[in-house]
Amino acid sequence: MHELGYVYIMTNAHNTVLYCGATIDLFKRVSEHKNKTFHNSFTQRYNINKLVYYEVYTNATEAFEREKQLKAGSRKKKINLINSINPDWQDLFPKLPNEAVEELRKIRKHFK
Predict the structure, then answer these.
(1) Domains of the chain: which residue ranges?
(2) Which of 1, 46, 48, 49, by CA, is between 20 and 30 Å from 10?
(3) Which of 5, 89, 8 is nearest to 43 (CA)?
(4) Domain topology for 5-111
């Protein structure tokens, strides 16, 4: 069975720095960024701790391909993407567990 994949964009408190990433465990990965688990990392240096955008994929490979696409795109495209679902740039992390469960339900219906 395929692992789910996630693409995400995070920023700092002033929304001045954007970070794109991909993972198979979004909750864990964002927690690592917020807790500054990896010393001297880009996200630690620039205080990136706010999840402002994410996408869910039924296949982790697709998520990692999408990450490359996002990283190659302009800052303006990333900002437009964030504004399309999160115009106030609120931290989506507190809502993540409930939204992730809902996404899983949608995906499972697709495979039935």
Answers:
(1) 5-111
(2) 1
(3) 8
(4) GIY-YIG endonuclease (3.40.1440)
Q: Which spans in the chain are helix H?
A: 26-34, 42-45, 60-72, 75-85, 96-111
Residue with tokens 């989506």: 92
Cβ atoms of residues 55 and 105 within 8 Å: no
Nearest to 88 by CA among 6, 23, 5, 15: 15
- What pLDDT is attached to residue 106? 64
Q: What residues pair up with 21 in beta bridges, in sequence order?
A: 8
Over range 43-68, report the average pLDDT. 94
> What's 89-110 look like in SS3?
CCCCHHHHHHHHHHHHHHHHHH
Say what the pTM is: 0.85
The 3-state DSSP class for residue 4 equals coil
